[in-house]
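Quiz preparation item.
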């Protein structure tokens, strides 16, 4: 009996078993020799928008951007194998091959390594349950402009950003998910389609250009950002443009999904995407030998995490769900949320408390994870077939709520880099100066983030003393919400380190007025430390700032 067990276990790891049981392979190439492409002719493999994004952020085009040598792929296909997707960043291809083709591939001189990564399953057509939409008359409005989604947007103070006209216009968002059933007919996306802002869809599981099937998860994820039915549901970035990319294989968990993910985000990069939302995570798989460990959650080991950080190095802001393992034995975040430059999003409930399922940090390298948090328990999402909304729970929905607000904020500052935007969001959050393993920097305030990005502004929110986090170069602004008195007097005094007055002002404002005060000509001050005293009626604030 023991001998039989030993033979059985050995067979699990034999090449013959692998070829029979699994027939998706990662093929790694030795080089990019004999390539017809050049980094000096980037327009042949990158869109003008992708090139412009790199240029704007001071990012050079390098060999990693070069496509895989075409003749290598041609010779792979000549064996009878099907190339499902490729990764130019890792110089690999995912192929579906039988035993004979696989044996030929292994002998090719430019093949460095092959790895079993998954099982090929024939593609099934996913019939729609209903191609006919309910008539508009069934659309029941409520008084809130955002409809039932108002609370999840106001939690982030996103409505103030929207009120100023910053709703994602000019920003391109890619959504990586398991499928987008009915997105091409759902009423919530009518304006997206009519405006030509539903730009593309692609399936990296089966290598085709149709992703509006297979799963409704991506449809609901997209709705938290792109829905635009005032009075029923408006998302966090209703004016952005979107690309739907299927990278997840529903019905199984195998490491090939990380290869699909890498291929998807590379494709998004080549199109010039600004923001990526990924409500996906990878920890353990159907085959134990593929499993990650918590030690792997350092941002430098898992393929999807490395791909996410590469994407960030190309100027993309990657937003990813932290994971739903907070209540189980894994507990921690998954890949690619552990990426060093990835914005990992935890879930909170309507009362701003951590959702029980939201995964914990830190990264195994001690990095602050998750980064920020948004509504992820009973998040409002769109119904697939009618003018109705549903609620769903998971960091899967906290992430796109956040990603949409990222797009809206970036639309106000298109000249900023991805890391400028991410830093402002973290600094605006409720735990900015005391991050923890539950919510990271906390729940952002996107109006505060806006102010931090504009003119080094300060937002007065009840605290008596502030230290501005960045050196001030030109001038400084701060926001005040006036009390409900008939008239309010605001006094501003700026003193240098020796107590010498540098600026004084006195203004009067009406009740409940939202005020932005400005201290001008700070650029003329000598370098040093300054204190601004702001008195609103009987309440006094002190702001310490540094002039460089």
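Solution:
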């Amino acid at each position: 009996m023991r001998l039989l067990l030993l033979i059985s276990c050995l067979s699990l790891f034999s090449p013959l078993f692998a070829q029979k049981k699994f027939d998706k392979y990662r093929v790694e190439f030795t080089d990019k020799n004999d390539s017809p492409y050049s980094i000096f002719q980037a327009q042949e493999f990158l869109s003008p928008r992708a090139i412009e994004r790199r240029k704007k952020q001071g990012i050079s085009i390098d060999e990693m951007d070069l496509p895989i040598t075409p003749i290598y792929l041609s010779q792979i296909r000549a064996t009878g194998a099907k190339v499902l997707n490729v990764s130019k960043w890792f110089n690999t291809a995912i192929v579906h091959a039988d035993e004979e083709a696989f044996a030929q591939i292994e002998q090719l001189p430019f093949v460095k390594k092959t790895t079993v990564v998954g099982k090929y399953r024939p593609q099934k057509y996913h019939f729609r349950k209903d191609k006919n939409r309910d008539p508009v008359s069934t659309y029941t409005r409520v008084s809130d402009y955002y409809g039932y989604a108002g609370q999840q947007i106001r939690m982030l103070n996103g409505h103030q950003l929207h009120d100023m006209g910053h709703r994602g216009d000019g920003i391109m968002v890619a959504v990586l998910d398991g499928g987008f059933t009915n997105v091409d007919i759902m009423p919530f996306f009518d304006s997206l389609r009519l405006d030509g802002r539903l730009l593309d869809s692609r399936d990296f599981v089966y290598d085709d250009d149709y992703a509006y099937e297979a799963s409704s998860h991506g449809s609901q994820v997209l709705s938290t950002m792109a829905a635009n039915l005032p009075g029923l549901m408006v998302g966090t970035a209703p004016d952005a443009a979107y690309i739907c990319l299927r990278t997840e294989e529903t019905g199984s968990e195998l490491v090939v999904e990380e290869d699909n993910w890498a291929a998807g985000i590379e494709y998004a990069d080549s199109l010039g995407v600004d923001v990526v939302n990924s409500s996906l995570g990878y920890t353990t798989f159907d085959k134990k030998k593929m499993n990650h460990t918590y030690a792997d959650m350092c941002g430098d080991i898992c393929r999807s995490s490395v791909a996410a950080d590469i994407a960030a190095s190309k100027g993309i802001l990657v937003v990813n769900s932290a994971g739903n393992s907070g209540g189980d034995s894994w507990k921690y975040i998954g890949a690619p949320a552990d990426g060093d430059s990835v914005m990992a999003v935890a879930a909170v409930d309507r009362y701003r408390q951590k959702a029980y399922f939201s995964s914990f940090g830190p990264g195994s390298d001690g990095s602050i994870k998750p980064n920020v948090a948004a509504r992820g328990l009973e998040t409002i999402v769109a119904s697939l077939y009618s003018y109705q909304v549903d609620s769903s729970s998971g960091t899967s929905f906290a992430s796109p709520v956040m990603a949409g607000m990222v797009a809206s904020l970036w639309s106000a500052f298109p000249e900023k880099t991805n890391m400028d935007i991410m830093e402002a969001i973290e600094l605006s959050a409720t735990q900015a100066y005391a991050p923890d393993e539950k919510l990271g920097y906390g729940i952002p305030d996107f109006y505060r983030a806006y102010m931090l990005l504009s003119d080094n502004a300060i937002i007065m929110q009840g605290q008596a003393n502030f230290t501005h986090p960045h050196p001030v170069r030109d001038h400084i602004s701060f926001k005040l919400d006036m009390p409900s008195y008939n008239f309010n007097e605001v006094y501003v005094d700026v003193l240098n380190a020796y107590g010498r007055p540098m600026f004084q002002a006195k203004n009067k404002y009406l009740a409940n007025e939202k005020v932005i005060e400005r201290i001008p000509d700070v650029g003329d001050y000598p370098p040093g430390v300054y204190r601004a005293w702001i008195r609103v009626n009987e309440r006094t604030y002190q702001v310490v700032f540094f002039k460089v």
